[in-house]
Amino acid sequence: MAYLGKLYSHDRDENYESYIDTLGLPADKAANLKNYKPQQKLEKNGDTYTLTSVSAVGNRVATFKVGEEFDETVAEGHKAKTTFTLDGNTLTQTQKFADGNVLNTKREYFDDKLIVTLTRTNWDGTAVRYYKA
């Protein structure tokens, strides 16, 4: 787990703007997300993980235990039931919303890069965000 504690900086995106367009957010919030290019870091303390995203817009922190569902407040105050799973170097985040939508974020950690793949219900596309260590 050499990737723990390592800071990854945003490099580029594929299909990310199309993904954001499917979320049904107000235009100003969607524009903010499209310009959101954070640095990311995953840390572990015992059996608790902390995923931190840092950007000029603000910081986001999620503290969790693998496999345990928790309540998370996301964009626009929407609430999700969120679960993280970890398989080797792949951390998968599943967010389930009351309206039936499910967002999946798969983070694949490597020594020199982080690849984040975004999918969701009601959209047959895939978005990918690339980060460099």
| Structural class by helix and strand composition | mainly beta
Q: Report mean pLDDT, rounded to a whole number.
A: 93
Distance between the termini: 14 Å
Instruction: State the shape.
Output: globular
Strand composition percent:
over 45%
Poorly predicted parts: none
Q: What does the largest sheet look like?
A: 10 strands, antiparallel
How many E strands? 10
Q: What is the share of helical residues?
A: 10-25%
Give structural notes.
By secondary structure, the chain is mostly beta strands. Helix content is 11%, strand content 55%. The protein has 2 helices and 10 strands, in the order βααβββββββββ. The protein has helices at 16-21, 27-34, and strands spanning 8-14, 39-45, 48-54, 60-64, 70-73, 79-87, 90-97, 102-109, 113-120, 123-132. It has a 10-stranded antiparallel β-sheet with strand order 4-3-2-1-10-9-8-7-6-5. A hairpin with a 5-residue loop joins strand 3 (48-54) and strand 4 (60-64). The protein is globular and about 40 Å long. The mean pLDDT is 93.
